[in-house]
Structure formats: C-alpha cells, structure tokens
Amino acid sequence: MSNLIINDVPVEAVPGENLLSVARQNRAHIGFVCDGNGLCTTCEYRILEGEANLSAVNSIERNWLPPSRLDRGYRLACQSSLVAEGQVRILTRAEELSRLWNNISNPPPGRSGDEYLQKFTRQVIQLNIEHLSMFPLNLLRTVNRLGLVRTILPVRNNNLWLRDIGNIIDERSGYVFNDPSATQPDEIEL
C-alpha cells in the first residue's frame, strides 16, 4: 500500500490507482470537470514529494500543461497513477488557491491579508497566462483525440459529477446535503 498524502491528508492507495479516482473516493479538494479526459486541467496538482512513485508525464499532460508548470512539478491527477509503493505528497491546485484565498481574510500572525491578495492575484494571472500559451493547438489536438462532441461535452455522468461536487461542499462546509437527519434551513415565509 502506498502512502499517498493529498492536501496534507493521508489516504489509502495502491500502485496502479489513478490519482483523480483516489482523490474523488476520499473527497479530496480537487477539481474535475472533464471526467478524466485530460482537457479541463482543473485536477492539476503539484508534487511535493515522491515523484519517482508516479507514472511518467504523458502526451495528454504535455498537451495541456505548459513546460514551465511541468518543470515545477505540476501534473494532472486524471492522467497520473501510482506506480510504486512509497510516500507521495501532493497539493491540488484547488487547495493551493483555497489556502491563499483563506489567508486573505485570516492571515497567519505577522502577515498581512494584502500580501496574500497580491500573491493570490499573481498566481491566478500567471496560471491563466501559462495555460493560454498552449492555446489553441492543445484544443485542436484534443478534438483530434476525442472528437468535437466529446471535447465540448466531456461529462458522461452528470449525476456522478454533481454528487462529487456535493461531497466537496459537504466536506468544506460541514453540512451534509444527502443526510436526511441533517437540520434543514428554516422555510422562508413570503
């Protein structure tokens, strides 16, 4: 069994498992829009430790992730798998941005919220510029690989996708949407 740590939370995983699947099963804070087709890049993560225990970067990742991001250890969870036992630590882009955002209104002692707002803004701008540098060739290659309809409408199971989003909201808010015993908000009288 591999020691996989996603966003500082240990999860169980075995070699051969896809990182996006493991993250979804464990309700990790990770983005996923394209059902693992490697075209939305919302499941992007940064390797903090254990790169040798992960599959090699594939052509789909090279198509969507700029070389500068690949060089800094960013990968796509939908395209990478555990290949060996050993510790792997990753930080998802969604969590990385969430932590910066949270530090704007609640900065660590001795730090300023403005500092984190600037860092958050720079990171979002840099992220978009880097990803736009790959456009439109990456989109054309994806249409060639998946077809036009599958590229435009990548999600096959909307219910599963919505359930996963609900799970993340549950985890982040502490409210369980699918729990009938959960206290429901009061009805609003009109």
What does this structure look like?
This protein is of the alpha+beta class. 43% of the residues lie in helices and 13% in strands. The chain has a five-stranded mixed sheet with strand order 2-1-5-3-4. Helix 4 runs antiparallel to helix 5 (113-132).
Question: What is the compact description of this entry?
Answer:
With 190 residues, the chain is an alpha+beta fold.
User: What's the main sheet like?
Assistant: 5 strands, mixed
pLDDT under 50 segments (min length 5)?
184-190
Q: Indicate the overall shape.
A: globular
Q: Mean pLDDT, rounded to whole units? A: 89
- Encode the helix/strand succession as letters: EEHEHHEEHHHHH
Tally of individual helices = 8
Radius of gyration: 18 Å
Portion in strands: 5-15%
The beta-strand count equals 5
- Class from secondary-structure proportions: alpha+beta
Distance between the termini: 56 Å
Layout of helices and strands:
Layout: E1 2-6, E2 9-13, H1 19-25, E3 44-49, H2 59-64, H3 67-71, E4 74-76, E5 87-92, H4 93-105, H5 113-132, H6 137-146, H7 148-152, H8 158-173
Parallel strand pairs: 1-5
Antiparallel strand pairs: 1-2, 3-4, 3-5
Helix pairs in contact: 4-5
Fill in the keyword field for this structure.
190 residues; alpha+beta; five-stranded mixed beta sheet; 8 helices; 13% strand; globular; disordered C terminus
